[in-house]
Task: inverse folding
């Protein structure tokens, strides 16, 4: 029998090498979104930053955008923690919107045209005709206040009594005390606290690149402040806040306090979910309706799972009701329309690295052919 184990090994090595080259290709790969967005946050701040894909709108003389037909235009990044909240809210409310992807890898959020929209250089930002609304919480409140009738359900229910409304607001505010970007960067600076496996996009050598970007973030903000005089004061303040945040995150004891705060919040969530028995068995966090509190909880769980902290916070029976909730919410259509799949991630990398992939692909094909030739030659001479 012919033995092609050597040939299969060669193919495997080529595949692994190709993957490694793609990961180490350059620092401006799509997964650097998280550090760029984290740089725009203090510990209790709210927004993120991102990249421009195809223009959903046109530039006009005053630096604002002219809508091409859809009233709602969302400037966001599909991997941004705070952007995902708004995207999920839009899908929950069945609201069509124009997507304008902001490229975090090229720091497009600090380009003059975007700083005219949001001087802080942060995403998400919603444009509704002539109105500009920054900050994910403000955007969701704006959508609920202005687009809640017929096929666009409210995310803060007004028809289920004061008690339910207060509970939704309470859990929303409670969960939003946790900053997903701070949790992410903290686990990168203190990898020993990670109890599970990291998932896309936080994989392999990417983590080292993210740490490097985090370390240089304040300096980069100061550079953009000099390049954009009209936003200089705001960007310099962001740089100062970033330095304070970074110093705090470097202190492991301080980060462990943040993890304990996360435990405390999730303990309260688990306690609430435990009460959902009998007629409340199919309830979400606060009611049978999917609310803004569920959006905040869902996006938090997604990020914790991606950075390898699901095992710490709910898996293996630690918080069984929360684990069941996370499994259940992943089947929701708005979740599937919001959270990028592994396929989407690979597609993004492939498109952004097409020239490299083509070159390496040819080299890989040559390697496979040459490897196969020597295997066959060896077999023939036996």
Result:
């Amino acid at each position: 029998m012919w033995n092609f184990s050597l040939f299969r090994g060669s193919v495997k090595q080529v595949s692994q090498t190709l993957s490694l080259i793609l990961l180490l290709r350059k620092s401006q790969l799509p997964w650097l979104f998280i550090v760029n967005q984290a740089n725009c946050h203090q510990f209790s701040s709210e927004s993120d930053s991102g990249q421009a894909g195809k223009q959903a709108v046109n530039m006009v003389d005053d630096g604002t955008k002219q809508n091409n037909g859809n009233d709602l235009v969302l400037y966001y990044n599909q991997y941004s923690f705070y952007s995902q909240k708004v995207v999920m809210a839009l899908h929950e409310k069945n609201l069509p919107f124009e997507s304008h992807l902001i490229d975090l890898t090229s720091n497009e959020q600090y380009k003059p045209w975007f700083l005219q929209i949001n001087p802080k250089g942060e995403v998400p930002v919603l444009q509704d005709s002539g109105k500009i609304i920054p900050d994910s919480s403000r955007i969701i409140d704006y959508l609920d206040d202005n687009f809640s009738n017929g096929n666009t359900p409210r995310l803060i229910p007004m028809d289920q009594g004061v008690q339910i409304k207060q509970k939704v607001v309470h859990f929303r505010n409670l969960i939003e005390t946790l900053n997903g970007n701070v949790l992410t960067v903290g686990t990168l600076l203190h990898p020993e606290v990670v109890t599970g496996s990291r998932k896309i996009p936080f994989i392999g050598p990417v983590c080292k690149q993210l740490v490097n970007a985090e370390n240089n973030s304040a300096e980069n903000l100061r550079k953009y402040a000099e390049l954009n005089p009209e936003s200089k004061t705001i960007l310099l303040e962001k740089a100062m806040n970033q330095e304070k945040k970074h110093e705090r995150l470097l202190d492991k004891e301080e980060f462990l306090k943040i993890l304990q705060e996360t435990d405390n919040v999730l303990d309260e969530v688990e306690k609430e979910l435990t009460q959902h028995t009998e007629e409340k068995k199919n309830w979400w966090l606060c009611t049978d309706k999917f609310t803004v509190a569920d959006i905040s909880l869902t996006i938090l769980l997604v990020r914790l799972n991606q950075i390898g902290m699901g095992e710490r916070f709910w898996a293996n029976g630690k918080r069984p009701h929360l684990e069941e909730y996370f499994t259940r919410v992943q089947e929701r259509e708005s979740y599937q329309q919001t959270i990028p799949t592994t396929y989407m991630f690979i597609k993004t990398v492939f498109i952004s690295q097409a020239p490299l992939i083509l070159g390496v692909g040819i080299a890989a094909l040559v390697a496979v052919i040459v490897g196969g030739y020597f295997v066959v030659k060896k077999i023939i001479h036996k």
